Amino acid sequence: MAGPVQSIERAAAILRLLAGGSRRMGLGEVASSLGLAKGTAHGILRTLQHVDFVEQDPATGKYQLGAALLHLGTSYLDVNELRSRSINWADALAARSGEAVRLGTPLEGKVLVIHHVFRPDDTLQTLDVGALLPLHASSLGKVLLAYGVVPVDALMEAAPESYTRHTLVHREELNRALGEIRDLGWGAEVQEMSMGEAGIAAPIRGQGGLVVGAIGVSGAVERICDTKGRPQPALITVLREAARAISRDLGAARW
């Protein structure tokens, strides 16, 4: 069998290096980090740039992962940057709310949990990073649907599953709920995916104001909601503050 192709190995190493960083990198940084000659690194970067796997900032000359990678299924650039920008704010939100915090992005008709902060107590909890949640029955997913990150038509064509008697599975009721989310700037699910559980979520915006993900707080319904099943205003406030802070870090204008 033929051995590994060195140029492909080096290109993959450059992509991993750029994906693992929280900032753009210059040619010298890339070359020294991987032990490559500058000429070699430059040639690979130019090739990756030609196929849109890498982008170069015209102002600084530094490199970052390119838009074409967003079409490979996992949207890794957005996921990586979103996670790195959100970690501190998510930790603070868990501390302020006393509840679990999750960060989600769309993946194959679901919500991919890319970061999860445990509820700050001593109870046994399971890490949800990598879990896939239903769009229509989770607060994270409903926010992504409301802001057009995922098309509603595709969801409805797949006949959304009813998890509890509260799950929104009809187009009319789901559209009504999504309209309310756009009006309020946040969304909720109360016992729609699991009885006794509730969650609220808010959109995270990137450059240009486009929604790129959602951050949410979840826990027992009696802690998330009041006696009438409405989310606690104090939780909504701290959640939206965290979402705005992350959005600003991602380059979104004030909103």
Automatic annotation (TrEMBL):
Domain HTH iclR-type per the UniProt entry, residue ranges: 5-67
Source organism: Streptomyces coacervatus
Protein name per Swiss-Prot or TrEMBL: IclR family transcriptional regulator
Residue span, IclR-ED domain: 68-252
Domain of life: Bacteria
Lineage of source species: Bacteria, Bacillati, Actinomycetota, Actinomycetes, Kitasatosporales
SUPFAM superfamilies, per database record: GAF domain-like (SSF55781), Winged helix' DNA-binding domain (SSF46785)
InterPro entries, per database record: GAF-like_dom_sf (IPR029016), HTH_MetabolicPath_Reg (IPR050707), Tscrpt_reg_IclR_C (IPR014757), Tscrpt_reg_IclR_N (IPR005471), WH-like_DNA-bd_sf (IPR036388), WH_DNA-bd_sf (IPR036390)
Keyword Transcription among record annotations: yes
UniProt-listed Pfam families: HTH_IclR, IclR_C
UniProt keyword list: DNA-binding, Transcription, Transcription regulation
Keyword Ribosomal protein: no
